[in-house]
Amino acid sequence: MRRRKCLFEAGSYRQHTEDRFLFRRDKAAARPDPCSEWDTFIDGRFTDQKKFCLNWLPVRYRPEAPKPEMWFRFLSDLFYEEDVEALQEFLGYTFLPTNKGQAMLIIIGKGGEGKSQIGIVLHEILGNSMNFGSFQKLAGNRFYPASQEGMLLLLDDDMGTDALTDTGVIKSIITAAGGFDRERKGKQSVQGRLYVRLIALSNAALSSLYDKSVAFYRRQLVILVKDKPKDRRDDPNIAEKMCREKEGIFLWCFAGLQRLIGQNYKFSVSPRMKANLEQIRRDADTVLDFYESEGYIRFEENTHATSVQLYRAYRRFCDDNAMAPVSQTTFTRRMKTDAEKLHIRHIKIHDRLGDNGRNGYEGVNVLINTDRDWK
């Protein structure tokens, strides 16, 4: 079995290319021989060489396939027009075993819009190369990533709202270019390659308890869907109807993949998507809100404040605005990280001659009285 490398791995490791995938040219056979499939390249070339592929796609490639009109109406009803290009590119991105895009897709709605139908259609195109699962489980269960080996897509069709306690695994999977440590129960962990892409359908944004870094948020493509019209009558068979258009949907996704590769794996992020992500980042970052608040601190020359005073002012700000504050350790670490951007400087503040001094910052002044909080 070790010699039966999937086509993607052969292309990636032996020929240094990740620009091809398999599809079924003829679905007449009930049990098609995986070695009789055709090999297609991004530029449309074919070869009839017999290959074994772990990730063959159960869809026929027919350039003359009719346009998927129902799929287009579904997209028009669900998404804003300016966001559709990025969606098209990411769905096509799931066809290849590569993490070059270094992004995950999160589709957010209030519920009932029909976004879960996307997962059904994708599964019809990707077949056994797609898993349904949980991002929370992926982040918190050390054995779960091993189950994604050889998968093109993991889709969480109802992502939980609980904040992640650790984002390291998800970030590593999104950007993994080399080996990834995979561990199975009762077995020694081994290095392997994970190229699974991540899509989440949710009613809320993906958040983290501790990771508020730019690196965490820049890996997210966030699309907010349209609200469901009050007078809309849902079609319970819409998924099945769209699946009958899968050859045309495949061509539409394929066009997005070609565009993405032509853009050097840079997604066509719309201004709306950028604004969505920035708002999500700000909503989750109470420290950033504190920096920009009025009446608690002021950044100005020839002033200073101790780290304790700054944290107490931050706690007061959170209490006044019904926000959950971060710990003092996290706040202190964040202040050190942001010092240069805020044009402040870490110093030792001495109250009297000869003392060891207290940690603080020059260039920021606390405007409220924090003395009453001293113990």
From TrEMBL:
The keyword Hydrolase applies. It holds the Pfam family DUF5906. Residues 82-238 form the SF3 helicase domain. Keywords: ATP-binding, Helicase, Hydrolase, Nucleotide-binding. GO terms for molecular function: ATP binding; helicase activity; hydrolase activity. PROSITE patterns: SF3_HELICASE_1. The keyword Transferase does not apply. NCBIfam families: primase_Cterm. This is DNA primase. It comes from Porcincola intestinalis.
